[in-house]
Write a structure and sequence with these properties.
With 635 residues, this protein is of the alpha/beta class. Helix content is 59%, strand content 12%. It contains 21 helices and 10 strands.
Length: 635
């Protein structure tokens, strides 16, 4: 059952309440009826939506010049009684049965990036699950509209949620409210004799600053970005990095370099995209609002992170140079001690019946000789050279130079790669011991099936019954007993080298967590929230208020900024991903069944590429657009 009464929703900017109070003082409590002019912005079965664009004195005799296409006198306010009365002149609306509700709001300043959004912007900003966000947002809309549309059949709406979505489009209304100042500007231009308020401009529309901004954006920045585009995209990215993309899976330094160069190479394109927000005042499409503002936030968040990155780099380089000798002394001693000498002692300890556990002498001696040979080979090939004092001196000087050029994040990436190279023999030990353990475990499981008269069917991926001969069972028993006696030796080596690999993984994860913080921390978003929360909307909130100006209850529509948890959504996702790599049920299962626990480092960089635009344009088209079609003309 649909509602029988139509709702008249009058969206009333706060500036007109302030103007009404001034008109009260001017008329000095004389008995006059101030005329309210509204623009019809949206209509459907449930509601008719007006936007107040002017309040004029009744002495103005030119009110009849309204052409009636979308502007109507929607009511009047008695200056003596201070009471609003709805008297619409819209002939297309059935005024026989209606309820009037006034919605008070503060007009967003679009040039300053203030706007309403019926959905939290973090689903667009952080690429979160849109389905989850949409469901949550609809529930919020339902709660707000329950306050607003009092006449609606709630039972019917709960049983048919699509009815509300179809007949009351909150998003369409909010789109018009976002450009309410533009509606006001259009009305004032069309009917200059009926205007009563002016839209608030931005800093860039100021007469003093407009020429300065225009000169910077039209004469300096375009040529700077053309040079940036040629240098980083055409030369560094296309000529040097793309042929070496296979290194991203192995080197964190290469991934960090690739990310930073892509960020610089796409800055010119982002500059053009966020420049389009200067013309969004004449567009009621929130998709463009989303796109432009999201690009703006990501663009400046990246710039702030890069500035902080280089600030940390200067401090880090200074500390390296001041404490260079001490660092070299301790690194050279402790790296060789804990990564070579202690590992040799630990391997020898495993062949001497550790903690009274009797191991197989022949197998443990074979594994000891194998691992000691690997340690000696690694030490002779590169380890001794990398931890040599003279080599460390060159490495620290080179690291300082690279840090000055590419920032603190690149220094951390180099340290991660350096650690990976020095602990390469740990990975080899783990690979060998895990493979031996995994193969032996699979053989024991297969032999157990044999004793139970079953076998694993690989084609059908199931366990089938099977009849075995006595000879097969005897051979199976012999092999099973051999494997059982060898199992403690294999497990001993596997556990020790798994612990070594796990500690290496912990160190790499810790360093990568710091790296991700420097690369992905929502610094600019936090600044926006502290400075002006309306620039990062997280939905709308409706409340009831008694407005003394018209002596009537009104609904106050306010934008809500993103919550702190929403701001850190993408950042927390990365931290959870790191946590799952170092402690989770899946990690325990991998250790039990002998699966690899070596992390895919490049997978952690994929979320960072979401801040880089996917599409691009050719250099020729970009040059023409930024020089001749630059949207930042402020004209």
């Amino acid at each position: 059952m649909a509602p029988s009464t139509q709702q008249i929703l009058i969206h009333w900017p706060v500036k007109f309440f302030n103007q009404t109070q001034q008109l009260y003082k001017i008329n000095n409590n004389n008995d006059k009826n101030l005329k309210i002019i509204g623009e019809l912005i949206c209509t459907n079965e449930l509601s008719v939506n007006y936007l107040v664009v002017s309040i004029i004195d009744p002495t103005v005799n030119k009110i009849n010049i309204l052409n009636g296409d979308k502007y109507f006198v929607i009511g009047e306010i008695n200056t003596k009684k201070k009471k609003f009365k709805y008297t619409s002149q819209n002939e297309n609306i059935d005024n026989t049965s209606y309820d009037v509700q006034i919605i008070e709001f503060v007009s967003p300043r679009l040039p300053n990036m203030q706007f309403f959004s019926d959905t939290p912007i973090y689903d667009k900003l952080f690429n979160s699950s849109s389905q989850k966000i949409e469901t949550t947002n609809f529930n919020d809309q339902y709660k707000n509209l329950n306050k607003l549309i009092k006449f609606m059949d709630i039972d019917h709406m709960q049983k048919n949620p699509d009815y509300l979505k179809k007949n009351y489009n909150l998003n369409a209304v909010i789109n018009c409210l976002n450009i309410s100042d533009h509606h006001l500007k259009v009305f004032n231009t069309k009917y200059p004799d009926l205007q009563s308020a002016q839209p608030i401009g931005s800093l860039k529309n100021n007469f003093l600053f407009k020429p300065i901004f225009q000169f910077i954006n039209m004469s300096i920045i375009p040529y700077f970005f053309i040079i940036t585009r040629i240098l980083f995209r055409e030369i560094f990215l296309n000529l040097f990095l793309k042929p070496l993309y296979w290194l991203r899976s192995y080197s964190i330094s290469f991934s960090q370099l690739d990310l930073r160069i892509k960020q610089f190479s796409y800055f010119p394109i982002q500059y053009l995209d966020i420049g389009e927000r200067t013309v969004l005042e004449i567009d009621s499409n929130n998709a463009k609002l989303y796109g432009s503002y999201m690009d703006y936030i990501r663009y400046y968040n990246t710039i702030w992170l890069i500035v902080n990155d280089y600030s940390f780099a200067l401090t880090f380089c200074s500390l390296l140079q001041v404490h260079k000798e001490t660092i070299i002394k301790y690194l050279s001693h402790y790296l060789e001690k804990y990564l070579i000498d202690e590992v040799i002692s630990l391997t020898n300890f495993l062949t001497q019946n550790p903690y009274g556990i009797k191991l197989n002498d022949e197998l443990s001696k074979f594994l000891k000789d194998l691992f000691l040979w690997i340690i000696e080979f690694v030490n002779m090939c590169y380890f001794r050279f990398l931890v040599d004092k003279q080599s460390l001196s060159f490495l620290i000087d080179g690291l300082s130079l690279l840090t000055y050029c590419f920032g603190m994040t690149f220094a951390i990436a180099v340290i991660i790669d350096y650690t990976s190279i020095l602990t390469l023999h740990f990975k080899l030990f783990y690979k060998i011991s895990s493979k031996l353990y995994s193969w032996q475990l699979k053989l024991l499981i297969s032999l157990f099936y044999l004793f139970c008269g079953k076998k694993y069917n690989t084609l059908r991926n199931r366990v089938d019954s099977e009849n075995y001969s006595l000879e097969v069972l005897l051979i199976g028993v012999l092999i099973f007993m051999i494997l059982i006696f060898l199992l403690p030796t294999i497990i001993s080596f596997y556990l020790i080298y798994t612990c070594l690999q796990y500690m290496t993984t912990l160190l790499e994860i810790g360093l990568m967590t710091v790296l991700m913080c420097l690369n992905n921390f929502p610094l600019f978003i936090i600044m926006l929230k502290l400075k002006d929360g309306d620039r990062i909307p997280g939905g709308v909130h409706l409340s009831i208020k008694y407005e003394k100006t018209i002596q009537e209850q009104v609904v106050v529509l306010k934008g809500e900024s993103l919550k702190w948890q929403q701001i850190f959504t993408n950042f927390l996702v990365i931290l959870v991903q790191f946590r799952n790599e170092i402690f989770s049920v899946s990690l325990i299962k991998k250790c039990i069944f002998g699966n690899d626990i070596i992390i895919d480092k490049y997978s952690f960089y994929k979320p960072l590429y979401s801040n880089v635009p996917n599409s691009t344009i050719k250099l020729k088209d970009f040059t023409y657009k930024i020089l001749h079609e630059n949207p930042r003309k402020y004209s």
